[in-house]
Amino acid sequence: MNETEESNKESGGAARIPVQVREDSGDSEVENEAKDDFPPQKKPVWLDEEDEDEEMIDMMNNRFRKDMMKNATESKLSKDELQKRLKEEFQHAMGGVPAWAETNKRKTSSDDESEEDEDDLLQRTGNFLSTSATLPKGILKMKNCQHANAERPTTARVSSVQFHPCAQVVMVAGLDNAVSLFQVDGKTNPKIQSIYLEKFPIFKACFSANGEEVLATSTHSKVLYVYDMLAGKLIPVHQVRGLKEKIVRSFEVSPDGSFLLINGVAGYLHLLSMKTKELIGSMKINGRIAASTFSSDSKKVYASSGDGEVYVWDVNSRKCLNRFVDEGSLYGLSIATSRNGQYVACGSNCGVVNIYSQDSCLQETNPKPIKAIMNLVTGVTSLTFNPTTEILAIASEKMKEAVRLVHLPSCTVFSNFPVKKKNISLVHTMDFSPRSGYFALGNEKGKALMYRLHHYSDF
User: Fold this and answer.
1) What kind and span of H or E run contains 79?
2) Is the CB of residue 90 less than 8 Å from the CB of residue 100?
3) In 136-212, at which residue ranges do the beta strands (DSSP E only) sit?
4) CB–CB of 396/380 below 8 Å?
5) Confidence (pTM)
6) Residues 6+ positions from 336 with CB-CB distance below 8 Å
7) Tell me: the pLDDT tens digits for 305-319?
8) What DSSP string runs through 85-149?
9) Residue 398 and residue 388: Cα distance in Å, rounded?
10) Which of 80, 188, 346, 426 has a CA positioned 20 to 30 A from the CA of residue 296?
11) What is the pLDDT of residue 23?
């Protein structure tokens, strides 16, 4: 027995996995006696009396066990059967076997490897449930969930779907004048509340960065509604001083929660204070503004124009830092930046999505895209990166089932999505949950479809 194994036995060990002991013909009599006295496995850190009991386990006297009974005849189960049932319940709750569990299953059971794995695990810190290996390309393991808004059905187009940045909640808003919040459990997704805005078909709704407010604009109004979620209060912002726009529709919230960016007409971008909703300053590009977004650090604004060019602005000085041509684009429709600050994606009218490095967008006037994604044939109206920058969702509202998920950094499309193509229809909005466990999209039939991405073990 080596020194590591002796120390593990003395300390009680860190796992209950049996470890085989290699025999050594050169052991002394004292060592041989020690082997006879101790069983060839590590001592568990704690003991559960029910685990040690070989008798049948009563399922009726414990409400948690009672919930796992499949029928009345299962009043008692063996220890092994109960363990199997618990495993099934866990996998069902997680939407399958988490990536970290799959990795552990593939490990060998030899002494040296198990001890090395254990030592490596004990030397690291952090939330192991929320971390996983790099997302593989090709096939994306996922499943269909209950529609996010199943408890509040509507036939009106869903214009916005977004996950709450802190809570396990999803927001669905649409042309039926309502903003609804749902608890995400993947099964029934119970409704929390609905906010009805009279004669206000919603063009866009969005959470503030801290999740304490919901902002909403309409298709034909200059009013900006702010719903204070903590106070339960709806505040209409009728007029922003200095903002001369007849209709306020498209807007963006900065990742740091400091700014609100409103896309105006005639090439104007208006920067507002998120706290006071007052105008800070305006920026102007040539032509029409197609789409805009903030950089991940909230220090820059990217604006895609109707003539196929992209403008990069400094937020603090409101000066144009660069202006570049989106390769092959006649006019832009959408733009997005990745959370890690690595990529800028531009969607055009011809169905092409160009993926650029952010550095080239800041320095070059004709940057070459890392990859041109050509899986869509109609105008790309929606672009969304997932929080880990491993997936880019692209969609066109001009054609049914025109939505794809692109793997990064390989820039290849996952071949198994869409899953059930006939259910998707025209996609108008998309979002990933804060840790990528869920993906949701809203269509013109009033449904907010939701999917569980098995690679990510957390919400």
Assistant:
1) helix 79-94
2) no
3) 142-144, 158-163, 169-174, 178-183, 191-196, 202-207
4) yes
5) 0.72
6) 293, 344, 345, 383, 384, 385, 392
7) 999 999 999 999 999
8) HHHHHHHHHHTS--HHHHHHHTS---HHHHHHHHHHHHH--S-TTS--PPPPSS---EEE---TT
9) 28
10) 426
11) 42
Q: Which of 145, 180, 157 is nearest to 440 (CA)?
A: 145
Task: Find where tokens 């004048």 sit.
Answer: 177
More confident position, 334 or 109: 334
- If DSSP codes are grouped into helix, strand and coil, which group holds residue 49? helix
CA distance 2 to 16: 19
And the tokens for 88? 């099934």
Phi, psi (deg, nearest 5) at residue 399: -140, 140
Please tell me the predicted confidence (pLDDT) of residue 326: 97
The DSSP 8-state label assigned to residue 369 in this structure reads P
Cβ-count burial of 306 within 10 angstroms (0-12 exposed, 13-18 middle, 19+ buried)?
middle
For the chain, the residue count is 459
Pairing of strands 191-196, 202-207: unpaired
pLDDT, one tens digit per residue, over 323-350 is 999 999 999 999 999 999 999 999 999 9
Q: pLDDT > 70: what percent of the chain?
A: 73
SS3 272: strand
Phi, psi of 290 (to 5 degrees): -90, -45
With beta carbons less than 8 A apart as the criterion, state whether 152 and 194 touch: yes
Do 335 and 383 meet the contact criterion of CB atoms below 8 Å apart? yes
Cα–Cα distances (Å) from 447 to 155, 181, 397, 422, in that order, read 8, 14, 14, 13
Torsion of CA 146, 148, 153, 157, to 10 degrees: -120
**Type of residue numbered 385:** F
Closest CA to 404 of 337, 345, 326: 345
Structure tokens at 451: 């999917």
Band of residue 429 on the pLDDT scale cut at 50, 70, 90: very high
* Residue type, position 389, single letter: T
Q: What is the side-by-side strand order in the sheet with 382-385?
A: 382-385, 391-395, 403-407, 412-413
